[in-house]
Prior knowledge:
By secondary structure, the chain is mainly α. It has one domain (about 5-115). Helices cover about 40% and strands about 5% of the residues. The protein contains 3 helices and 3 strands, in the order ββαβαα. It has helices at about 25-35, 50-85, 90-105; strands at about 5, 15-20, 40-45. The chain has a 3-stranded mixed sheet with strand order 1-3-2, with no helix packed on it. α2 runs antiparallel to α3 (about 90-105).
Amino acid sequence: MAKICIVCEKEPPGEAYPVADDAIIRFIRAAKRKVNLARNNELYVCKDCHPAYSERRKKFEKNLVFFIAGGVIIFFGINVFQLFFGRFSVFAFLASIFLGVFIGSFPILSYVPALRQGPGLPEAAPVPAPRRAQSERTRREKPRARK
């Protein structure tokens, strides 16, 4: 398997950050296998492309929140509107579900996968955990006698 940077689409020189193999990536790979277009590349982000990747990922996350919120507002808006006037239509309810999901799925068109979390990666910098005996939460002190 070849290593490919998802930003510049070239083989990363030197160190690179691995991309998480999430549900959307697995779905795309399965679909490509079905039509015999799979290349089975290992996906990475090279260090030179990391600032551009971070910018694209932030934009994707912002759009994801915006469109999901819009879909939820559409769903509740249609259903509250019809209940406000004392009528309930199953067709309007199903249409509101369809519109909400349809609007909420728009960010998938500009999907930017997350980086794999682990030691040495910028999104998940390792922090040394305190030993269990020294932890403030696990330390049990003797109750003090009241006078």
